[in-house]
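Hello again, I could really use a second opinion on something today. I've been staring at a protein lately and its backbone has me curious. You're getting the sequence in one-letter code plus the fold written as tokens. I'd be grateful if you could look everything over and explain what you see. No rush at all, and the record is pasted right below:
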Amino acid sequence: MGMKWIGLACAFVIFAFGQTTAQVKDESTLLRVGASSPDFTLNNVEYFRKRELSLSDFRGQHLILNFWDLSCSSCIKSLHKVDSLQRKFGNQIQFFPIGRDLFTKRQTLSARDAFEKYRKHWDLRLPSAYSQSLSGQFQAPYTPYFAWIDEKGILVALTSTAEVNERNVKLFLDGKLSFDSRDTDQIEIPYDSEKPLLLAGNGGEDSVFLFRSILAERNLRSRMSAPGFITTFVNPFSGRPFHGATNMVQVNGASLGSLYMMAYGDTVLQSPASYFPNRFPTLENFYATSSYGKWWPRPLLELRDSSLFDFDPVAGIHSYAYSLCVPPDRASAALLQRAMQRDLDIYFGYHVSIQTRSMPCWNLVADSKAHKLLRTSGQKADWNVTMSEIKLMNVPVYGLIARIHQLISPTLPIIDRTGIAGHIDIELSGALLDFDGMQKELQAKGLYLERGRQEMRVIVISHRTN
């Protein structure tokens, strides 16, 4: 897919982003979409007609393998999603989750234990199997990852969870599903986050500049990642700034709303403050400073037509890449924000104001029981969080709020109204990725999430009056 670039400020560039890619070197191990699927064997299968299965057992039936583990919440949520599709399409197709245990330095996290908790909570009607190696056989670069195998045993597609939907399942059953852009014959265009975009072919063709900003439609092949706010903070572990360099801002696949949040919002962490004593002392100040609950997490649109803010990350609709480089000797978060504000104003032309408004939120409140029940025993601060368990020892309440937000990703900020001044000890176990499941476990500890209002700073976007 091509990519149009719109250069702003001192470097003005318009060009097409080509399709040049490198070939995978080892052709003998190449997994090919459109060819026969690798054979496989599954042992100790549960909630299915057989305990041992291979690819031949699915001959004549459409099959989607769902590789998941405990490394991210989207893996667990994918189970709920495919269960809904399994119920809808019934015997026309078989969804098959394949879990993988996660090993840490401290413990082994069992995929089966997590599946059982959510199977009961969501009443899942899916089979299950577990393998540490099968995802590697299908060359899964991440999880959740899906292998689409048709009734003849042909590997039709390899996708993320975003493509697993009713429309694509119907196309799959009709033999019309195709994801050409995900052909595994090719790899992504090389990109090094420590170098400016386009320099020496980094992410595209070369360009010479002294000062530069570029706004582009998202490139589906070249990927970048960065925090959702402007910072010149240097990660003490890697020794590198979060944006690649202290004089740069680089993001890809960003919504227009997130670009305005970066340009006009606070220059500290937007997610809840985290508590990392003992384990990550060098990051403690960075992660303990947050605009969460102080700034509304997205722009407020007062526009007649807000369609440019409609964001589809899978299709790349209204999805942008942005790169900014300023002189290193003048670099600061304030300068980067001013330059980015100018660029957004030049290209989109909206009026932007920062206002204080009463906005909806979730209040975390505590009853009298919680103040006594959760009081810390004073042991060394520690924490352990999985998809179905939270264990916190000697942490402030904001540390608990960070873990709640991490698991259920509420659309409204969570505000501490507990009145608990000291540190707490707390253990929660259950279907914690589900809001009702989280609420149930919190209530057992005397804590409640209740709707409320909070004064926050809000980025308001409107049309210019002139």
